[in-house]
Each structure stands twice: as C-alpha cells, then as structure tokens.
## 1
Amino acid sequence: MNLFLSLQQFANNSLRGMQNYYIEIIIVVLVGIYLILFYEMNQLRQEGMTPKNLNNMCDLSSDELNEKCKTLNSNNCNLTRCCIYLSNNNKGRCVAGNRNGPTFIDEIETPTMKADHFYFRNERYSI
C-alpha cells in the first residue's frame, strides 16, 4: 500500500513538474517576443521613425519621399506603405514605390546595383 501511494505521489509531482516546465517555456518565449518587439520599436524611435512617422512620410512629394526612403534600412522600409526594398542576391536599398514597383524606374539599375526583385511589406515581387 505504501509503495502505491509513493508511486502516486511521484506521478503527481512529476506531472506538476512537467506543467511548470511547459509554463516556464511559454513564459520565456513570450518574454523573448516582447524583448524583440521592444528592441525594434526602440530602434525606430532612435532613428526618429515611429509607425506614425513612417506613414506620414508617404504624404511627401515623390522626390522628397524617395530621399527619405533611401535613409531606411530593410526592416523599416518594409513597414511603410510607400517604400520598397529593391534587391538582388547581393545588395539592396530602399526607394519610393509600392507593390507595382519603384516610383522612379531608373532606380532599378544604377552603377552600383541592378535589382531583379523587390519587397513591399515583406512580400517579394519580381521585376
């Protein structure tokens, strides 16, 4: 009888331990996601780019917008609704555009890079 109770207690404690283990994993994952989001938002703020600012820049003239887009990294570029990330397998740069491509066609091929695809809001498009 004592052996059965001991096994039952062991099983109950093991299950509680497993539940706590999974809860700890979930907490670690959630904290990791929070820290990544916090880091990304902090990076945007340091660059003077909040989500509101990123979309307000879309109201600029085409030339001004293109210059502003060129200052963005690939992550920030893909957050906007008016910039695209031109790319080839080696390089990339952010320019004004939308899902139809760059605002200025001459941005596709420059002396330093010939783009063969672009990303608009993290979705890949061929040129």
## 2
Amino acid sequence: MSDAMPPMPPGMDGMPGAGQPSEEEMRQALGQMRAAPVEQLVAEILSATLNQAQVKLGRNDGDYQLMLSICELLVRHMMPTELAGTSAATVLDHGRLRLHDIFERFVAAFYRHHLAEWEVAAQHWIRWPVIDPPEFLPIMVPDVVLTSLHGPSRKIVLDTKFTAKSLLSGRADNLKLDSSHLYQLYAYLRTQEEESAAHAEATGILLYPRAEHDLSISLQVQGHEIRVETIDLKRPWQDIETRLMSLVA
C-alpha cells in the first residue's frame, strides 16, 4: 500500500460531535479519494466505521469490542503484540483460549450430551485417603469422571492431554509414553479404591489428540485397566463422534 491518506475532514471520520464538513473540505476530501488506491480508500472507510461503532459500545459489550478490535487489525494490516505501541486493542483472555482447556471442555460436554445413562463430572476434586493432610498436599482434579447410573456399576476416569507429542524420547532415543501422565492417572485410580467396588475396578483413560502417532494401548495394572488413546480431530465429525463413543462402550 502507498503512503497513508491525510485525515478525513470532520464529520466524515466516523467520530460523533464533529459537525458537518464545509464545501471546501468536501472538495478536498473528494480529490484525495480520487487519488487514493481503491483498497486504501476502502480501508479508510471501514476504519472510520469501526471507530464510530466502538465509540457507541458500552461497558458491558466486551465481546463486541473484541470482535471490532480484530476487524480493525485486519483492515489496518496490523499485528497484535503485548509490547508498548501506538494503538491499544482489547486484551485476549489467554486462560480461556488455551487449547488444552478447550479440548477438555469439549470432551466433557460431548459425554454430557450423549451419555444419558451416565453421570458426567468435570473437574471434580477427589480427596487423598490421608488423615490430617498436610497444607502443601496438591489437590487431585481429573478432567472427567464417568459413572454409570444403571446396570453394572462402572467408573471411568478420563484425563485429556492436549500436547504436541503423545510419545517422548527415552534414554536410548526410543519412544515412550509420558511417565508423568501415567503416574498422575495411576494416582487418581489407586487412591480412590476404598470408596466403592466401582472405584476399585475403575478404568483410567489418557486421551490425546492425534499428532504424530495413532495410539490405542491397554494395560492391566493392579486391578485397573489403564488405556492410552488418541483421537484425530481433523477427521469428519461422524468419525470423531464414533471414536469418542467407542472409548466408553
């Protein structure tokens, strides 16, 4: 794009309260428009419209403010940054946008919608079987716990792991499962065995989005089945639905 156009005259810049432009100002503005490239002219008009829309937003219109800020970045060919700059935009809530949170909430919502015969508990705290636990003992919060409501009592503890690698390099450069993920799931299962018969035989699942490897591994560990599974999120929705349902069949 060429050099920026001079500021548009008052009343044509999208800002309220500036009054109507004079005839001379209109003539100058039209001359500037004729000389400007079409894409630059469109960008200026859209930018002025966005400015006007943002002024009209209230304090409770945060979602609209965010969308307008993104539109403004696109129109003005600007890149967002957290460093000091000349313009300000609505701040993104990084906590809400973390992909592993989105993946976890999606899986929980999916099972709530599809499993009418199961209780689906997301981010449910489970306690350590410890008398007078010390202050620094970490809490245990599995992503999803599924409990059957009818028929034989079943319990599935499912932990989602949105990571780039489901297998890690071992000491001899051979690929291994992530030990920290296995230890975590193992603790979820073993510490709850005295709660009920279903807890004593609960199944644990580590669920990864497919990145480099397709995994479907089953281990029998001290009365518990521990499974490591992947799901290809690039597949058609019907395949994703079938895959998730197969995990709890």
